[in-house]
Structures are given as C-alpha cells and as structure tokens.
Specification:
The protein is an alpha/beta fold. The chain folds into two domains: 102 residues, 3-Layer(aba) Sandwich (Rossmann fold); 195 residues, Rossmann fold (3-Layer(aba) Sandwich). It is built from twelve helices and twelve strands. The strands form two sheets. Strands 1, 2, 3, 4, 5 and 6 form a six-stranded mixed sheet that branches. It has a six-stranded parallel sheet with strand order 9-8-7-10-11-12, sandwiched between helices. Strand 1 and strand 2 form a beta hairpin. Helix 4 crosses helix 9, helix 9 packs antiparallel against helix 10 and helix 11 packs across helix 12. The radius of gyration is 19 Å and the shape is globular. The two termini are 28 Å apart. The structure holds nicotinamide-adenine-dinucleotide. The site of nicotinamide-adenine-dinucleotide (NAD) has 28 residues, from helix 4 and helix 5.
Length: 351
Amino acid sequence: MVHQPVRHHDFQEMLYPIHDETQNVLGVIAIHSTALGPAAGGCRLWHYESEKLLALDAVRLARGMSYKNAMAGLPFGGGKAVLQRPAIPFNRKSLFKALASAVELLEGQYVTAEDVGTTVADMQLLRQHTRYVAGLDTPEGRAGGDPSPWTAMGVFESMRAAVQQSFASNLKGLTVAVQGTGNVGGRLCRMLHEAGAKLLISDVDQSRCAKLAAELGATVVSPDNIVACDADILAPCALGGVLNEESIPSIKAKFICGGANNQLRSEADGNRLREMGIVYAPDYVVNSGGIINVVAEYMEESTEQVRTRVQQIAGRLLTVLAMAEQERLATNVVADRIAEGIIREARRDVA
Ligand code: NAD
C-alpha cells in the first residue's frame, strides 16, 4: 500500500495522515526534510481546536527538528507526528497502533519517539507494530529510554555556560522562572536547585507544580504571570509560541534558555528580544539532548556516546551567542543560518 501524502496548500512540507480503520483522521506525520537522513522527531499527543492548527503545529515542529538535528551534527532530517488527544476517554493501544501503521508505511523515512503527552510505555506499544521508533527501555549502558533527562541536562549546561560567559557569575543566587514542570522542566528545576538557584515555577497542572514546589522550596507563580515575573532567567519548558509580540515587552529576565520547542511565535520575535537587550538561547540549539539520545538508541550506541554529544551543546550555544553579538544579529537568525547551511550542503551532496 502506498502512503499518499497531502501537500497542504499552506505548507511546503509533506503531511501524511494518520487514520484509524474507519478512516477517521487522528493526526498527521509532517516531514520537513530528509536531506541529512531519515526524518527524526517525537510524537506529540495534545488537544487542538482544529485540524488546521494541529497541522500547523506539526509543520512548525518538523521544521524545528530539521534545524535541531542539523545543528547537533546528527545524520537525520526533521519530522514530527502529532495526534489529536480525544476529549473523551480513549483506547491508547488503538491510537498508537494507528500511528505505528502510518510510520510503517513510510518505510523508515520517519523515526518517532516521545514528546509532550507521550511516554516510554507508548513507544513500547508502537514497537509491537513498527521498528522505526526509539525512546524504548534499553539495557544498562545502551542509549535509550526517556529522552527528557538528556534534554534537561543540555539546557542546564547551556544556561550555566552562558551565565558564566556573559554575566560573569554562576547560577547560585540567581532567580530562574521555569514555565512548565513536566518531564524536562521538572528535571531542570532539580538541577537548578542543586546549583543554588532560586526557583519561580508554574504549570497549568497545579498539583504537579505544587508537589515540585514542596520538594524544592520553590515559589509557585500563576501560568498567566510566569513569563513576566521578576527573574534573572526565564526557562520556557511548556509549549511553543510563548515569546511573542504581546509577551515580550513584559519580560524582565535578561536571559532566556529553556527546553520548549518553537518558543518564538515568529522569526521577528528574536529581534524584538534583542532590541530589549534580552539574550535568547535558540531553543533547538539547547534542547537537542533528547533527540541525541533517541538517535543514539536508533543507531544502537552507548550512553557514554550520548553524554559526550550532550556535553557539546553548551559550546555550540556560546558560538551562536558570540556570532550574534559580533554581527549584531538576533541569535535565532544566526542559528537558522548555520542549520540551513548544513542542510543545504547535504542537499548538494545528494544532488
Ligand atoms: P511534558 O508534557 O512532560 O511537560 C510539559 C508541561 O507543561 C506539563 O506539565 C503541562 O501541564 C505544562 N504546561 C502546558 N502549558 C502550560 C502553560 N501555559 N503554562 C505552564 N505550564 C504549562 O513535556 P516535556 O517532555 O517536559 O516537554 C516540554 C517542552 O520541551 C515541549 O515543548 C517539548 O516539545 C520540548 N522538548 C522536550 C523534549 C524531551 O526530551 N521531552 C526534547 C526537546 C524538546
């Protein structure tokens, strides 16, 4: 059976529908680029108001994965699966079986893993029906499992390195506002706490946030106020688009470094931050730890190989920040230019 892609008239990317046996569309797989290798990117399970918004998120996330994988030096392109989270109780097994069928039809062009709303257990379900999946339980010493600790580590090390370099200090005593206390945000908070930072934390899941606040002695801030709160550093670790025309003027933090994908709503928002003297660590430069682990698992590499690559993330951020300062450009513009150059070069090799 051939998997018919839909080229949505608004987007350049290929969109492959994910449907159940009765052809109800459950989501899409978006493939942005396979110039560097198979498209790799996680599966998001989230509620969207419309199919169009779901597709738009998939496309933006897939593009981000192309740039992230290129920047991290991985031999993979960019893709993403996005599933609509049903409003009523649903059968997880059949949802992930449908995704597995769609992945399998792509014959290795797309490799999936965890993202917001999906877990190692979901990946184990997928593995029963497709081999093009990572983020599974693996034996000790082998890369694999939940990618989020690696993502959190890359973000934390990047934050620490940039603070040391640009602000000539360490994290001790600095106030960090963390938006989203899930898999990445929660772990990042623990690392920041260990390093002596003061924490302001927020989550729409109030009980999750309260539990973490009690554990770390952090202050809880309402989701509406976290981006603008009085902090030295802002760490967006929830969903995308939080840095935008409306929110940026209210930001007090001087440095933004977090795990969330697509933090800028538009490219121009990077310039808005620059004009306000706020240093923005481009999301895909610092949050690549998870995909580094996913890809290493897929290539049957070791945990040590993952650690070595994750330790290189902070250095890449420092390079991007230095180039942006030197060229008086927004940091996202510089990062995109580097990533696009790598992808372009790979296309030329293929041609
Ligand atoms: P998660 O689902 O475990 O956590 C996200 C948390 O954000 C949840 O607790 C959710 O309730 C909260 N949230 C949602 N909207 C919010 C809002 N408006 N204000 C405050 N909190 C809000 O997901 P995760 O795996 O921790 O991923 C977080 C972000 O990092 C996502 O953007 C994801 O794409 C990105 N990311 C994750 C990984 C990874 O390894 N898990 C890798 C790279 C990027």
